[in-house]
Amino acid sequence: ELGSYSHFMEKEIFEQPNSLMNGMRGRFSDDGSTAVFGGLNLTPQELRQIDRILFLACGTAWHSCLVAEYLIERFARIPVEVEYASEFRYRNSPLDKNTLVIAISQSGETIDTLGALREAKRKGYRTLAINNSVGSTIARESDGGIYQHAGPEIGVASTKAFTSQIMICAMLALYLGRLRDLSYGDGVDIVKALKQVPEQVHAILKQNEKIEAIAKKYARYEDCLFLGRQLMFPIALEGALKLKEISYIHAEGYPAAEMKHGPIALICEECPSVFLATSGEIFQKSLANVQEVKARKGKVICIATAGCDLPEGLVDDIVIVPECHEIVQPILMSIPIQLFSYHVALARGCDVDKPRNLAKSVTVE
Ligand code: M6R
């Protein structure tokens, strides 16, 4: 089943142009301005009445929820909250009656996500699931949902399921936006941007060898920070989770500006940082954060979109991803962090497909 690949994680990273394409297939309107979903079981009228969305998930899927929060608030202007499923199920939080609850789960069998979904249903909320396993318990028990169609994910470290979840959330933000304030023109721009993603991911994957060389340079460190602002904050969290679960390096993700509230104390020659920098309004602020780290002798690996104007020689290593619409930045920026973690783990001799202490699907509390 592995074909020419050495590990399922590698195979699944390289499958992403296809898995992303499959998630989009047949899901755009004929006029190319919005997304269409078959299984929501909610009419546009009902969806217009939703005045809050609560996302529930665990692990990597929880990071997808954080991306969804930014995207849905920005493009559909609906307030979004994100909770760990394990916390929500026992917290008894008061919810507005027009809240839509969305659970995200690759396997559809994660016990905490299922427990949280059941708790939301018990209280009478409408529930949807974003899920990669057709017929899973979470898919069956929710009122409606969207299948990811990313294909089976075997590697314990989630890769293609994560980018596919973000893709679905971007399409959902587009769909909900077009039911509200998002214009036809803005919708068309987003659809075009989404359709370009598989090719752009393919182009980033061609940098595999370069990323491998960078990873080998940093594989000996025992600590690593991942920093990013706005949409890049959840990707920083995901980068840290990926690195820690397969390489056992202690890694943390932070919003870059939070550095000075504590984590900057960790910065030294022995603690590198991975910066996620995207062009746009927040770039100058991210640059200032990179300079803060460099001033403290911290090594910096920068993953940046092509439009970022980084001063020559500021960072130690750099990976450039294609310039793109903001809505697809989280997908493209995820690819280098997956490859980086994969190669660091291999350089440390770790079993990337079966990391210690972890199961693919967490079906016990
Ligand atoms: O199947 P699920 O998406 O519900 O799984 C949730 C988490 O257990 C999962 O994402 C976990 O964090 C992965 N090992 C991350 O790579």
Textual characterization of the structure:
- By secondary structure, this protein is an alpha/beta fold.
- The chain is 44% helix and 15% strand.
- The chain is built from 13 helices and 10 strands.
- The strands form 2 sheets. It has a 5-stranded parallel beta sheet with strand order 2-1-3-4-5, sandwiched between helices. A 5-stranded parallel beta sheet has the order 7-6-8-9-10, sandwiched between helices.
- α11 (232-247) links the parallel β6 and β7.
- The radius of gyration is 20 Å and the shape is globular.
- The model has no long low-confidence stretch (mean pLDDT 96).
- It binds 5-amino-5-deoxy-1-O-phosphono-D-mannitol.
- Residues 58-61, 105-107, 110, 113, 156-158, 245, 358, 361-362 line the site of 5-amino-5-deoxy-1-O-phosphono-D-mannitol (M6R).
List the helices and strands and how they pair.
Blueprint: H1 8-14, H2 16-24, H3 44-49, E1 52-57, H4 59-75, E2 80-84, H5 85-91, E3 99-105, H6 111-122, E4 126-131, H7 137-141, E5 144-147, H8 160-178, H9 184-205, H10 208-218, E6 223-228, H11 232-247, E7 250-255, E8 273-277, H12 283-294, E9 300-305, E10 317-321, H13 329-347
Parallel strand pairs: 1-2, 1-3, 3-4, 4-5, 6-7, 6-8, 8-9, 9-10
Helix pairs in contact: 2-8, 2-9, 4-8, 4-11, 5-6, 8-9, 9-13, 10-13, 11-13
Bound molecules: 5-amino-5-deoxy-1-O-phosphono-D-mannitol (M6R).
5-amino-5-deoxy-1-O-phosphono-D-mannitol (M6R) is lined by residues 58-61, 105-107, 110, 113, 156-158, 245, 358, 361-362.
EC number: 2.6.1.16
GO molecular function: glutamine-fructose-6-phosphate transaminase (isomerizing) activity
Domain SIS: 43-182, 214-355
